Amino acid sequence: MLKHNAVFLVIAVAMFSVPGTWSQDAAKPQESTTSVAPAVVEITPKTLDVHVGQKVKFSAAAKDAAGNPIEAKPSVWFAAPFDLAGADESGEVTFHAAGVVTVGAVIAGKTGYAKVNVGTSKITALEIEPLARPIVAGSAERLTAVARTLNGEPRSDASIKWTSDKPSIASVDAAGLVTGVAPGSVTIKANSDEATAKVTVQVVRDAVRKLSIKPATADARTGDVVHFAAADSGKEPPVRWSVTGSGAAIYPDGAFVAEKSGTYVVTASSGQHSASASVVVRPRSVEREVEVVSHVPMPDVMMSEEWIIGHHAYLSTIADKLFVYDIADPANPKLLDTLKVDARLINDISTTPDEKIGVFTREGASNRKNGIVFLDTSDPSHLKVLSEYTS
């Protein structure tokens, strides 16, 4: 008992002496072997510049007042703030986000620190989404690109430079908006850091004489999909769709859907020509009475989510338990099994369409790491853990 209290006090001292936020990702304590109190703990490297996604192995050395080394191992490693980096018991630190990170180790009650400047990861790859159709001369379409770092993560703040190899056929601006000038083929290039991507864009002449939209008017409920089509004397030219207002969307194929009621104007553009149609959207207003036929009491935990598979209900909790109930008779649910995992919250439970594999997220584990748990649900009454992924 005294030994455990001593370890707790060492960790507590380290927590309150860190210049910054204590990391919840602190590594598991180890036993210190020294009987001499160190005067200083030196962390190597002392200062460092890294990028997001990098892993660095740090070392710690204890010395007495005369500068002589002391044979002892760290009882704990930590990195703070915890949302920027995490340390394991060996001193390896993984950097998750940009900022200034304090890395430290505790040896016999003495704490040493290192300062790390974490920069954003360099862009190593670009992915350009090709246009769905040619651009009509005189009209414009916007290209989008996803910038990815070395570990494959997207970078939303990446600065992308767009260029056209034939501005006389199509130009492109800083936002990736491509404007057709004359018929032909053009290569649009995107650059960010050392990454480059290319896409071919076709520009066709404006042969439209009179553009029309069908249906010219539409009446729908929220959530309904209305399919619009644009035509020019029976032909279907390449068009660009748009819609007024923020409560609705229209897709490249002319499919319109609104999540808010109101009146919307849908426009199809092709070259110098355009046509519009109106849509009146009414609230769906679907109401049904619900009859409660039974309930499941949970005296010691709070329920988080549920997932129904046939005659089985999976109930996750704000705790470490997942309950399996037989609901073949909804008025008389029966508890069949309880699955326990290392967590303080089980969430996002679901299964594959064939109901063979299940998955849920777990948060607040004893090691402060979140993760995903995969389940064998081939026997829906008794779940088995197949594997886990820890972030």
The CATH topology of the largest domain turns out to be Thrombin, subunit H
The number of distinct structural domains comes to 4
Assign the structural class, choosing from mainly alpha, mainly beta, alpha/beta, alpha+beta, or little secondary structure: mainly beta
Radius of gyration over all CA atoms, rounded = 30 Å
Assign an overall shape: flat
Number of strands: 36
Report how far the terminal alpha carbons are from each other: 33 Å
**Average pLDDT:** 87
DSSP strand content: over 45%
Number of helices: 1
Oligomer: single chain
**What CATH first level of the largest domain would be assigned?**
Mainly Beta
Q: Strand order, biggest sheet? A: 2-10-9-6
| Helix coverage percent | under 10%
Main beta sheet strand tally, sense and closure: 4 strands, mixed
What's the CATH architecture name of the largest domain? Beta Barrel
Given as residue ranges, the uncertain stretches (5+ residues, pLDDT < 50) are 1-26, 28-32
